[in-house]
Amino acid sequence: MKVHSGADWLWYQLGPHEKTEAKKMIHHNHWPQCEKWFEHENHINFLRSDTNDQNNEAVFGSLIYHQGLDDEKNHTVFHFYITRDFFFTINFDFSLLRGVKEKHATQQIQTCENPIEGFFVLLGELMNSYLIGLDEFEVKQRTLKWQIHDDNSKGILENVHKLRHELFIWKGLTLGAKKVEMALKEAFLPKNDRQKDYLRAHQKMERGITYINEFDQELSNLLHAEEVITSQRGNEIVKALTIFTTLFTPMTALGALWGMNFDNMPELHWKYAYICSIVLIIVSTLLIYIYLRQKGWTGDILREHQKKYLRKEKKR
């Protein structure tokens, strides 16, 4: 257990196996609500605010503060209990937070006037780490937008869904911190609502939520655009098959006709019957193609092939 001293308050930084020491710090008035949460390690994102006893308010719970992208079970939870005189954390590991230095964060927390402000510094450090992740997410999303523009392959839709999944994770982490902030404000503010560390943490959360909402909107637009493109491709395939079927209808029909074994088929004995049949098939196919071309039913497909060819030439 590490004990950090503020002006006239304490922060007890406990390890995952020091719950006995933590239990002794919980006020007996808060224990009925704490018991279920405290005795069950599987409680995640549990949050309670007890304001029944004036000047003895407390906010306590559990929060997922680190989550892997590929496995739901790859997450880390820390527990906290916050009063006007002290707060303790269980299983809070600074090494899991990118861009956050434990020594610097601890020193900043110790300069706070009260434990509520100190915990806001802790939430601010969480948000610093999340904002770094959101910055990297923005780069991935920008890359994906240009992939869609340059080469809209089949794997793009899967990449959009992967990014949306990652955004959901960042959103869950950020909203978890936001809920704790709201609970602290409910229990201890407005006395602390003008303190700088609260305002900093609040602004970081608002910034993170704003980023997430904007990214979510962009991903929705990308997903919609990709769905439209996929639908258009399906329509083009159906259109191409229809054109090919129509073009080869004369050949199919005449081939089926001459493949019959009727006794009376005089054209089979004509001297130039074979040449005439080939000419008839070619002429009828060309007439159908000219008709389709005049109607404009083949232009889109031909132009699309031309665009793809020009795009490849530019890349060279």
TrEMBL record:
Gene3D superfamilies named among the record's database cross-references: Magnesium transport protein CorA, transmembrane region
Bilayer topology term: Multi-pass membrane protein
Catalytic activity: Mg(2+)(in) = Mg(2+)(out)
Presence of the UniProt keyword Hydrolase in the record: no
Cellular compartments annotated: Cell membrane
One GO cellular component, as annotated: plasma membrane
Gene Ontology molecular function: cobalt ion binding; cobalt ion transmembrane transporter activity; magnesium ion binding; magnesium ion transmembrane transporter activity
Function: Mediates influx of magnesium ions. Alternates between open and closed states. Activated by low cytoplasmic Mg(2+) levels. Inactive when cytoplasmic Mg(2+) levels are high.
Name of the protein this chain belongs to: Magnesium transporter
Species: Bacillus velezensis (strain DSM 23117 / BGSC 10A6 / LMG 26770 / FZB42) (Bacillus amyloliquefaciens subsp. plantarum)
